[in-house]
Amino acid sequence: MAIRYPNGRQFKGPSASKKASQREITYSNRGMTLEEDLNETNQFYLEKKRAVIHKKPTPVQIVQVDYPKRSAAVIKEAYFKQASTTDYNGVYRGHYLDFEAKETKNKTSFPLQNFHDHQIEHMKQVMIQNGIAFVILRFSITDEVYLLDASHLIQFYDQKKSSRKSIRKSDIEKYGYLIKIGYHPRIDYLQVIDSVYFKDES
Amino acid sequence: MAIRYPNGRQFKGPSASKKASQREITYSNRGMTLEEDLNETNQFYLEKKRAVIHKKPTPVQIVQVDYPKRSAAVIKEAYFKQASTTDYNGVYRGHYLDFEAKETKNKTSFPLQNFHDHQIEHMKQVMIQNGIAFVILRFSITDEVYLLDASHLIQFYDQKKSSRKSIRKSDIEKYGYLIKIGYHPRIDYLQVIDSVYFKDES
């Protein structure tokens, strides 16, 4: 049987996701998923007291729970639910931060099917409350990670039905910001937040 | 077999939790849990575009998932995990709000065992980032709901090991704020937030 992560995603081993030759070239990518990299980054921010950002737990609809005597309750039947919000949120310098993170294997565009109506609606609501809403997009083949403000994502998303079903990479380069990839933290998105949203403050 | 809520809590029916005579006196309490009342309140705030506050999903450690053909993935074995943060967070007027909500059947004090170290640590971290952190405490017998700033909770919590294991109700009355109970929204805590944290702004 295939080994699976707690989130249900199949475990593929460190080398299966990238060929050895590719890994030699892209030093920064150690075969970790975007989620793992962001969890590591957020943990770094937390320890350094720079920000308090957490990934929300995967929403699950629990149907049946067993309560064996003398041991922990066991969930015997449950289903994955669609999230009504984005995955990450928290506080940085008094401001509310809210984002979703997605990756693609495409090279020249980012498919909009990675986002769903609820999440777009949520980002609009956050913007109304003057929260900082954005997405982190990774092109996994080249290990390029961009921060794109929610306002731009929403614009592309709302055009989706009438026109193309993805965002051109050239548009992400134009409207978004390349995040520098490092070792610790891996994806230092607060550096971009500082320069884009707080440029007048520091 | 007992019917259970999605969160695993046993369903007791609307009348089991309060006697009929009591319900006649406390009109405001319709036998709903604090969580249900807050979800209704947050939904109200969302619809009125007043704030975007959500309860985080219950964290679950998923061990085994079945993928039947032509139907949704079924989680066959999972366990409840202890949350590393508080249950509720979101954005209001540009500010980050973060809170935990608990109720007690005690009449004169609130047991501190309702909170655990991780949550207290999280509240401290939020305060460092200038987030607004607090707890909502309900005395369910009298249906009195208080908002208490995290700074006071932390003070009482840190005294716990050396002295008493609960907060006196008189201290909650002294340091906290009574939240007006209504129909729609049920627990209008933003009214208190406005008067306590934003009194100089409006």
Automatic annotation (TrEMBL), chains A, B:
InterPro entries, per database record: Resolv_RecU (IPR004612), Restrct_endonuc-II-like (IPR011335), tRNA_endonuc-like_dom_sf (IPR011856)
Location in or out of the cell: Cytoplasm
Broad class of where this protein is predominantly found: cytoplasm
Record keywords: Cytoplasm, DNA damage, DNA recombination, DNA repair, Endonuclease, Hydrolase, Magnesium, Metal-binding, Nuclease
Cofactor binding: number and manner: Binds 1 Mg(2+) ion per subunit.
EC number: 3.1.21.10
Positions in coiled-coil regions: none
Co-factor requirement: Mg(2+)
Pfam families linked to this entry: RecU
Ranges where the record places region Disordered: 1-23
Binding site for Mg(2+): 85, 87, 100, 119
The organism's place on the tree of life at top rank: Bacteria
The protein's enzyme class: hydrolase
Catalytic activity field: Endonucleolytic cleavage at a junction such as a reciprocal single-stranded crossover between two homologous DNA duplexes (Holliday junction)
Residues under site feature: Transition state stabilizer: 102
SUPFAM superfamilies from the UniProt entry: Restriction endonuclease-like (SSF52980)
Family (UniProt): Belongs to the RecU family.
HAMAP family hit by this protein: RecU
Protein task: Endonuclease that resolves Holliday junction intermediates in genetic recombination. Cleaves mobile four-strand junctions by introducing symmetrical nicks in paired strands. Promotes annealing of linear ssDNA with homologous dsDNA. Required for DNA repair, homologous recombination and chromosome segregation.
Protein name: Holliday junction resolvase RecU
Organism: Halalkalibacter alkalisediminis
Gene: recU
